[in-house]
Design goal:
Helices cover 43% and strands 15% of the residues. The protein is α/β, with parallel strands linked by helices.
Length: 280
């Protein structure tokens, strides 16, 4: 399996590691810690040395209770960082946004992947940006609008809901002229799901891998609240062990991309998983 962006083709023979770089003041785990371009580039360089394949830059927090920022503010946060990472660090950059204008400016600044948590529901025009530029496109399952996605009543059958919505997103993307090889799918851990449903999705990820066998599957469970609840609501900076367990189980069950805060530790863990799988 492979995944095409506007600048390269990724082999998914081994799981890809996408390092999280939030340049926001209010992200749930690292908000405010990368407030300057210099700090963001320094962290991107660290993740590069730790072995990250992709840096995912986000300029708008999607934590519960977060408030939307304007296009202009989001662009001002992410574009200088993307330009600097491409120039100084040299790693492929993904833009984590659900706004088409932000995506367009980020691609112009050097990003080559668009990571849309709405799966083209909120601004389908993002698909036009991907189609016109050849950018990789991550389509994520979520429910509700930005302000309500974390307060949705849980569905009874989360697997059916995820499958139906991802099929919708794929159909929409291809209808806009996006090639299938540009698409990766994110099952949306932590978005509109109960803690138990998050665990169920990871435990039975092979079902979704089989359903969408033509597309790389991305898992983003790193430091999320369901991990904290498993240990009695421990804070985000104390969820490394649980995050590694999720990454290991996801890769064991077929995930091809993991989106994480702790790059070095995750790479060590998943490379062991891959080595063990080779001996089966």
């Amino acid at each position: 399996m492979y995944w095409k962006t506007s600048k390269r083709t990724f082999s998914c023979e081994n799981a890809l590691v996408m390092g999280i770089l939030n340049v926001t003041p209010d992200s749930f785990s690292d908000g405010g810690s990368l407030a300057s371009v210099e700090a963001a580039v320094k962290r991107a360089g660290e993740m590069s040395r730790e072995g990250a394949d992709i840096i995912d830059v986000g300029g708008e927090s999607t934590r519960p209770g977060s408030v939307r920022v304007s296009e202009a503010e989001e662009i001002a946060r992410v574009v200088p960082v993307i330009e600097a990472i491409v120039k100084v660090v040299g790693l492929p950059v993904s833009i984590d946004t659900s706004k088409a204008t932000v995506a367009k400016e980020a691609i112009a600044a050097g990003a080559e992947i668009i990571n849309d948590i709405s799966g083209l529901r909120w601004e389908p025009e993002i698909g036009n940006v991907a189609a016109e530029t050849g950018a990789g496109l991550v389509l994520m399952h979520s429910r509700g609008e930005f302000e309500s996605m974390h307060s949705q009543e849980p569905v009874e059958d989360i697997f059916s809901d995820v499958e139906q919505d991802l099929h919708r997103a794929i159909k929409s993307a291809i209808g806009l002229g996006i090639r299938p090889e540009q698409i990766a799918l994110d099952i949306g851990i932590g978005f509109g799901k109960t803690p138990v449903q998050n665990l169920e999705l990871i435990a039975n990820l092979d079902r979704l891998v089989g359903e969408f066998a033509a597309f790389p599957i991305l898992i983003g469970a790193s430091r999320k609240s369901f991990i904290g609840k498993t240990f009695g609501d421990v804070p985000a900076n104390e969820r490394l062990g649980g995050s590694l367990a999720c990454a290991v189980l996801a890769v064991w069950n077929g995930a091809q991309i993991v989106r994480v805060h702790d790059v070095r530790e995750t790479i060590q863990a998943i490379r062991v998983v891959e080595a063990v799988k080779e001996e089966q």
